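Figure 2 data, in text form.
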Amino acid sequence: MAITIKNDEEIELMRKAGQILARVHADLAKELKEGMTTKEIDRLAYEMIFSYGGIPNFLNYNGFPASVCVSVNEEVVHGIPSEKRFLRSGDIVSIDGGVLFEGYHSDAARTYGIGEISEEARKLITVTEDSFFEAIKKAKPGNHIVDIGKAVQTYALSNGYSVVRDLTGHGIGTALHEAPNIPNYKTFFKGPRIRKGMTLAVEPMINMGNYSVTRLDDNWTYATADGTLSAHYENTIAVTDHGCEILTMLPEEQESRFGIKQAGKEDEAKEEKVQETIVVSGSKESGKAEEKNSSKIEESTAEADLEAAAQAQEAETKIDDKAEKTADPKEAEMEDKKEEAVPDLQPETAQPATEKPGKAPFQTLTPEEKRARRELLFEDD
């Protein structure tokens, strides 16, 4: 599979898919609590993604039976949500999900602590997240893919942790998984040279013990071989002229992380709900945000607004029809759009799809309320 280079219009669509996913992660984080099941997390993610106008691209992907992967404690990735798995105080839970929006994908993962977690678990989560930000300093034109993985491994090892080797990051765009694979460790080969317009899912998977993993009997879930904790952190990025843009972080998250707020239009700088992203340059010293006009959502024309409204209405009709389990031939068309899986997400035996969720708070919004949510998310202040 060849590496695809995206133009500004394609990256804009990926930016929108990324902002939907970032908002869903932020919303899910507020709902996590002791006693809930991992299946409840999946139901919430399903409802939230549709409520923002996206499609959960993990659902039925090569047979995966849920909208998000939910992996607890020693589970590394691809955990199947279950009604029987309850979250307990002290657990750490990794949530990995993606959104399809107007033909383009986003992919991101976060690891959270439930209730009171140990200092060791807290440090693991922090180091995993920090290893991502160390890695993307190398995601700039002229470097090679190996530079990303080497940065993850160097940082993780310096903190006493190991890096999973059986699973990798990947390219992303019109398919959920595209070339190139992105190992989180130094490889013998340099890999492709990084170019502007590449869109990549960089996802460190860090273990507290040994790097070895094993696949469980469900043929999806990977867990640490020694039973120690594992954490996962992922974002979709787009390579720019001098660094990269993080597509799956909200503006407020980036402001908190980098300590600066990217400026919007001068006459509207007082507004706080601008959908912008920070460009991370190749060194810590030069890690200030660069103004990127392409990071701002372009104002829609009247014709585009009408088309978007029609698409939103059609999507809402499909969702309601699915929830009420009425026959709809368009569902088959949606399923036909699922992309071919890559090796790191292929089970030996496909799992049957789970029962379709019924209506819940996010799905019972009126069409006007759903449009308002989308307009607020993509508001160009």
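Caption note: The chain is about 30% helix and 20% strand.
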